[in-house]
Amino acid sequence: MSVRHKVREHVEKLFESIREAAGKGKHTVYVVYTKDMEDLELIDTELDFSDMDDTKKFLEKTTREALEKQVRGFDLLTMVLDKDGLYIFSSEETLSGSLKEDITRRIEEFKEE
């Protein structure tokens, strides 16, 4: 299996939990990349979960971004759904409470900018 296929599979696996929790409608999804647990990068996307084309574009864009980030040494850590202020995490790794708090704090700072 090619690197691209593995990355796409990882992206889809994380997204599946987000999709189930989101239901229908528009919500913001934060994709979190890490070099180490200290160095985090967030990318936010407004996504209409009832629009299949929007979902497809999100998956394609996130796969491309994840591949580009890998070249720079970053890995896709988690996706976070912002469902009206409730943050729902989707990750293949178990995230510590302090890491989730750090990510939530960074999302809140990101939203203020």
Characterize this entry briefly:
With 113 residues, the protein is α+β, with helices and mostly antiparallel strands. The protein is built from three helices and four strands, in the order H-E-E-H-E-E-H.
Describe the 3D structure:
- The chain is an alpha+beta fold.
- Helices cover 50% and strands 28% of the residues.
- The protein has three helices and four strands, in the order αββαββα.
- The chain has a four-stranded antiparallel beta sheet, with helices on both faces.
- α1 crosses α2 (52-71).
- The chain starts with a helix and ends with a helix.
Question: What descriptors fit this protein?
Answer:
globular; alpha+beta; 4 strands; 113 residues
Number of distinct beta strands:
4
Shape: globular
Q: How are strands sequenced across the largest beta sheet?
A: 2-1-3-4
How many whole angstroms does the radius of gyration measure?
13 Å
Helix tally? 3
Structural class: alpha+beta
Q: Any low-confidence stretches, pLDDT <50, length ≥5?
A: none
> How many angstroms does the end-to-end distance come to?
40 Å
Give the % helix: 40-55%
Strand content: 25-35%
Overall pLDDT, averaged? 93
Biggest β-sheet strands, sense, barrel: 4 strands, antiparallel
SSE pattern, N- to C-terminal: HEEHEEH
